[in-house]
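Could you please consider the sequence and fold appended to this message?
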Amino acid sequence: MDMELKYKRILLKLSGESLAGSKGTGIDFERVLEVCREIKDVAGLGVEIAIVVGGGNFWRGRSNKHMDACTSDYIGMLGTTMNALAIGDAFKQVGQEVRVQTGVEMRQIAEFYIKDRATRHLDKGRVVVFGCGTGSPFFSTDTAAALRAAEIGADAVLKATNVDAIYDKDPKKYDDAKRIDDITYLQVLNKKINVMDTTATSLCMNNDIPIIVFDINTEGNLKKVVTGKKIGTVVHNEE
């Protein structure tokens, strides 16, 4: 390995929308293959990679106020599982060893999440994809990312987004939006900056796991993050 790594084991949080490509909903498998090729290249550097995937390309049930909240969240978990299976298939096609684990038992289609089994896979160079969020309703996939990161001993949570950093307001709506390169967890919580939900941010803060927010759509960004290049925004504890 020629390249020095800043982060040896990472938890990559992928949104469901990042798998939909220009279609906006569902799965654009060509886009999934592109993402998986880039992740495979980074794994080839010796980085141990776990992925938590969202399900927003299939289901955003909380916008439906008439449905039971638990039922809505369970449907969302199934959406994340569809995405996890698609990612797993794409990794196999590009020649990367992978295991899919779910927080709800689905024996015919994936392994049930067990921390020690997940870490063994990572030790052996396999990418591990987590579906079903935490496996419990009322917790987002952002919270699942923070929880799994703490459980597997990840060095950082990498929040892959469609913008290049955190801004003080939506840069797509406001021309005067100011980019933030460096911020603490408490500042994020106190200013209610939309990075991850408060539960996820607090979990990372309590376990001292930095969050790096970066643009997944720019080729090479993931490699730059793991090798310590100045990409996106870093959320961290007070120095």
About this structure: DSSP finds seven helices and eleven strands in the chain. The longest strand covers residues 9-14. The longest helix spans residues 69-94.
